[in-house]
Design goal:
Layout: H1 31-36, H2 40-47, H3 50-66, H4 68-85, E1 104-108, E2 113-117, H5 133-140, H6 180-189
Antiparallel strand pairs: 1-2
Length: 190
């Protein structure tokens, strides 16, 4: 074809007599095809037989079902890697709790106190923030060594974990219920 171009040898490729006058008259894309010509995806759907699409759908579903466990394992591994990457420098070696939110603890100051950092980004409270408290402390502030000076003489408040609180129902009466801090103060004073 390189030497002769598109002209075919009539001896090798005789004219098809089964469909006479096939290439005479108006030919080209129909109006129906021209309506779909704007989108390549529409053209693909137009020319592919429906039976082929149903086979493709079956095979896609079969492939999805066959590889579901692998995908779940990968997603679980990524979650664990993300959680493990937030592990703290001063971790006590215990496995993380299976229930509740994971809190990251870091050893600061004298080495005996633990500070518990939240593991959530809080962009509403601090506009433009994309880091968790843990990342701010360890990455941005270099494990607390480069932290900014306190405002108005007030340093970072070291708080322990929250205590279990007794919840009272409204049916017991409002006079009997106390604030959480008052229960602790009364118990310590007695």
């Amino acid at each position: 074809m390189r030497t002769d171009g598109w002209n075919l040898d009539p001896d090798t490729f005789p004219e098809d007599t089964e469909y006479p006058d096939l290439y005479k008259g108006k030919y080209g894309p129909t109006e129906e095809v021209m309506e779909k010509a704007d989108s390549p995806l529409d053209l693909l759907f137009f020319f592919m037989p429906r039976s082929l699409w149903s086979k493709i759908a079956k095979e896609s579903n079969r492939y999805y079902d066959q590889h579901l466990n692998e995908r779940i394992d990968r997603m679980y591994r990524k979650q664990r890697e993300k959680a493990d990457s937030n592990d703290v420098v001063g971790s006590d070696g215990r496995p993380p709790s299976r229930f509740g939110r994971k809190q990251s603890a870091g050893v600061v100051c004298d080495g005996n106190k633990r500070v518990y950092f939240c593991d959530r980004v809080r962009p509403k409270h601090y506009p433009g923030n994309t880091l968790t408290c843990h990342q701010i402390w360890h990455i941005k502030w270099n494990n607390g060594k480069d932290r900014p000076r306190p405002l108005v003489g007030r340093d970072i408040q070291m708080r322990g974990l929250g205590k279990k609180r007794r919840h009272t129902s409204e049916s017991e009466g409002e006079g009997e219920s106390c604030k959480d801090g008052e229960d602790d103060d009364q118990a310590a004073g007695e």
